[in-house]
Amino acid sequence: MDYDVIIIGAGPGGIFAAYELTKNDPSLKVAVFEAGHALEDRKCPIDGVKVKNCIHCKSCSIMSGFGGAGAFSDGKYNITNDFGGTLHEHIGKDEAVKLMEYVDTINLANGGEGTKLYSTTNTELKKMCLQNKLQLLDASVRHLGTDINYIVLKNLYEKLKEKASFFFMTPVESIEKTEGGFLIKTQTGKYECEKCIVSAGRIGSKWMEETCKSLDIPTKSNRVDIGVRVELPAVLFAHLTDELYESKIVYRTEKFEDRVRTFCMNPYGSVVTENTNGIVTVNGHSFDDPEKRTKNTNFALLVAKHFSEPFKDSNGYGESIARLSNMLGGGVIVQRFGDIIRGRRSTAKRISENFVTPTLQAEPGDLSLVLPKRIMDGILEMIYALDKIAPGTANDDTLLYGVEVKFYNMEVEVNEDLETAYMGLYIIGDGSGVTHSLSHASASGVYVARKILA
Ligand SMILES: Cc1cc2nc3c(=O)[nH]c(=O)nc-3n(C[C@H](O)[C@H](O)[C@H](O)COP(=O)(O)OP(=O)(O)OC[C@H]3O[C@@H](n4cnc5c(N)ncnc54)[C@H](O)[C@@H]3O)c2cc1C
User: How much distance in Å is there from the Cα of 411 to the middle of ligand 1?
Assistant: First the structure.
């Protein structure tokens, strides 16, 4: 055996698995293989001046590398079973929350100290939402911010590099079952291990699918969430964001009874692009440092779609819509709410005269040519519903960026230990389809590490 445990992927799932293993048993030989760069080498070339759009780097620094997709995220660490994944269905609700709280203490001890924990407990805003046909989901959220999140990751790496071997820019090509464990093949070498933890995240979804096929591990199709990112003056949402930081609000549309929800709220933040396997979509983040804040708040409005029979490829559906937007806009499209309502495209002139200044340089266009009517109608209905609790949301100047797509990995068949039918092969984090967040992914890493240690 080259290693006792090999971890594939250095996102939150992989990092916290490595942390827990090496902390509790320093004699273990642990290796982490990561397709992307080390943290200090991660740099997205989009600077808004020379490089305005995604240039499709070999390894996308937003999605890949030490820290995974979470490295430049807003670092919103949600402690809840209400959203962010279905880890509790495998390991129980109490255990899931305890693990998320445990990871929170590690983040605090590694640079996150002093960051604020927001909570929905006893908030009056819940009532205000219910009175307007909106539901506010329960959660505690620690906001690390992109800056502090980076410091936490840096500190964790300083500790981990002494205890585990890291192989950056080394994508794992295949996993094979051997007599005593698993053979991990990369372009530069083959390594044998007794146990293997796979935490390949969203960027590794295609590879994960192929790996499951080759090992005959059953998978189920998962949902896809499609929508837009809304950007408006931060002051309009300040009563919500000052108290809760992020409010997860759900609305059931009158027309189709679809559920539309807010997602990833970034007070005083910026809108950014994201590249998943060559498809450019939109996302957002914000800094903890007041000096780096903008005047705008952004959040996503998403509609969930799940296909089962005869068409099963929910992600493929989301990809096609994102491709259409990339085809029309060369990347992300931006449109004023007033232009959507008037049935006309936004132009560079209309955007430059808009009261809300965009934080992302996107192509002015027409989102109604991209989004299916049912999804567009749901988003417009939700904007009018939000306008009742945050007047001004439905102003002409509100900006909509599209498309935002949340791809969920297909759900891999794992047991209550997050172990596949192969003893010693664990699939965790977003790559397993079980988690969709920093907190759930990190918790799943600690959970399997403890199973291995036991
Ligand atoms: C811009 C952005 C903002 C976000 N903001 C938030 C937020 O505020 N709060 C929140 O809860 N969540 C947020 N998320 C989601 C969050 O980042 C993910 O849920 C989380 O990172 C999942 O962790 P993971 O370890 O499962 O996977 P990932 O973080 O995706 O890490 C997987 C890693 O595996 C590597 N990999 C993949 N395949 C291979 C292979 N074959 N060989 C070797 N390595 C491989 C990848 O390069 C990657 O680094 C955000 C995501 C993005 C993109």
Answer: 16
